[in-house]
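Standup notes
- DV: blocked on the single-chain target, sequence here:
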Amino acid sequence: MQSTPQIVLASTSKYRRELLARLGLPFEVAAPLVDETALPNEAPEDSARRLAEAKARAVADRFPQAIVIGSDQVAILEGSVLGKPGNHANALRQLKAMRGKEVAFHTALCVCDAASGQALTRVLPYYVRFRDYSDAQIERYLRREQPYDCAGSARCEGLGIALIAEMRGADPNALIGLPLIALTEMLAALGVSIL
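- DV (later): unblocked, structure below
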């Protein structure tokens, strides 16, 4: 029986760590230490793809025999990027702007075999339409959930689901930050079987 190679998640996100743990594979976590600034005129999907690969390759340099998983997500509302709010006031602004509208989340995934240099990369779109919620509902949600480290401020795996009218996409895990369906396919392509 072939042993599973070392797997490293190139992320310090607790959400990505929790998602990867669902696959039941032992893995390590390493901070990718890359500049996440978007390039001028860069499309959201291209930015997510570039950063996912940059994260995976940066960590692969430190773990030369590992399979390294990098991921990045860019959320877009009417052509503008929605980042992590960081605080209550920014989250309030984001949620008011998203009310009754659709937000596109582009989640990129890169799985890199550090030993060979081979990298597989995909971008998965996921679309979320928000309810026409009230200002009072936003305030109650923010006080209870405090989603200040979550792009778009709506944590779908928590109370944020009450703000959402509809979700569309191939893998709901992509919305949280790590598309597990694509990840299992990409790992298999690099010789790592989940089952």
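- Follow-up: The helical segments are 14-21, 44-60, 88-98, 135-145, 172-176, 180-189.
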